Amino acid sequence: MKPYFSFQWHITDECDQRCKHCYIYSGGKHEHLLSMTWKQMEDTFYNCMDFCKVYGRIPYFYITGGDPILHPDFWKLLKLMHGYGVRFTILGNPFHLNEQVCRELKWYGCEKYQLSLDGLRQTHDWFRKPGSYDCTLEKIKYINQAGIRSVIMTTVSKANRMEVAEIIDAVVRAGVNVFAFSRYVPSGGDLDTGMTAQEYRELLAICDKKFKEYEAEGCQTYFNKKDHLWTLYEYENGEFKIPENTKEGMIYGGCNCGNCHLTILPSGEIYACRRVADSRVGNVFEDRIADVWITSMEQYRSYEKFSKCSRCRLLSWCRGCPAVAKGTCGDFYGDDPQCWATEESGLIEPKKPGEREA
């Protein structure tokens, strides 16, 4: 079977929230919100399909924004994709969902609808919009009833890490199909994100305990350990073992940047990853994605450049989050600030004379 390739496609900047940790709004400059025209969306879709034909990949789209449902040609795009049998996930807001909308999304091929919860009610509504906490949990039933998998994603930072355990309780009560969290990437706002590596490891331990308790009870929510530092955590606990007969230099897991994923913005800009600042590699209105993949994207596949991960036994399965490293210290290949692996643990080889510092 052919491998999948995922496109995170932002069709519009338009949104009815102003989240404090949003890439678009956190810097305070959003006078010129962009949306693709229908012709641009059509051309972009065919450019993506061309890429998959060239490299023998199966396309998978994450349609987002802003809130993609606010784009005037949103349903027209879904009709186009449906004609090609393309499956997709929507990353959006809850405000425009109802029974009818969810049924139509399912008919067009929507497999998952991802919403966000970034704290308990007071914290989440501070991050996003008053009333959005209750609205998010309320709309889960419509997503589930339509046969779409409901996904809740939490963006974790120092501001909300102590609430994650109770968020897990809330999503289980609401019948959410999938729960995951990822870390906040500094992007120019005033959000205090300074978790230490030890604080983050403690959070993983708390969540792991809660996940296992719910699983033992037969809970139907799937807990997706999305952050790659889960690999480090499970390696230490003996739950992840380095497979035998692995090949030197092969990448088996971890960060998908430069591997099987890219992002397209409403401006047409192609990013190696939306979470990686300044990771522009081309423009979908001007460049053939198939060409960009073997030219500009190469700079994100130099795994030997990782200042710490290149010396780690888990390089082929983890690499932490380069976006967090870039947002924190300005270097994609720098140290992940929440990674607690050390030379003393035996996971990290000591630096050789002349090796660069992060």
Provide tags for this entry:
358 residues, TIM Barrel, 10 strands, alpha/beta, single chain, 10-stranded mixed beta sheet
Shape: globular
- Based on CA atoms alone, the radius of gyration comes out at 20 Å
In the CATH scheme, the class would be Alpha Beta
Q: Structural class from helices and strands?
A: alpha/beta
Q: Which strand order does the major sheet show?
A: 7-6-5-4-3-2-1-8-9-10
* Unreliable stretches covering 5 or more consecutive residues: none
Count of structural domains = 1
The assigned CATH architecture is: Alpha-Beta Barrel
- Work out the strand percent: 5-15%
Helix/strand layout:
Layout: E1 4-10, H1 38-55, E2 58-64, H2 74-83, E3 88-91, H3 99-108, E4 110-116, H4 121-127, H5 132-145, E5 149-156, H6 164-174, E6 178-183, H7 197-216, E7 222-223, H8 229-236, E8 261-264, E9 269-271, E10 280-283, H9 289-292, H10 322-329
InterPro entries: 4Fe4S-binding_SPASM_dom, Aldolase_TIM, Elp3/MiaA/NifB-like_rSAM, PqqE-like, Radical_SAM_PqqE_MftC-like, rSAM, rSAM_ACGX, rSAM_sf
Organism: Parablautia intestinalis
Domain Radical SAM core: 1-213
Structure, described:
The chain is α/β, with parallel strands linked by helices and 358 residues long. It has one domain (4-300): Alpha-Beta Barrel (TIM Barrel). Helix content is 31%, strand content 15%. The chain has helices spanning 38-55, 74-83, 99-108, 121-127, 132-145, 164-174, 197-216, 229-236, 289-292, 322-329, and strands spanning 4-10, 58-64, 88-91, 110-116, 149-156, 178-183, 222-223, 261-264, 269-271, 280-283. A 10-stranded mixed β-sheet has the order 7-6-5-4-3-2-1-8-9-10. Helix 1 (38-55) packs parallel to helix 2. It starts with a strand and ends in a 29-residue tail after the last helix. This is Radical SAM/SPASM domain protein, ACGX system. Its cofactor is [4Fe-4S] cluster. Residues 1-213 form the Radical SAM core domain.
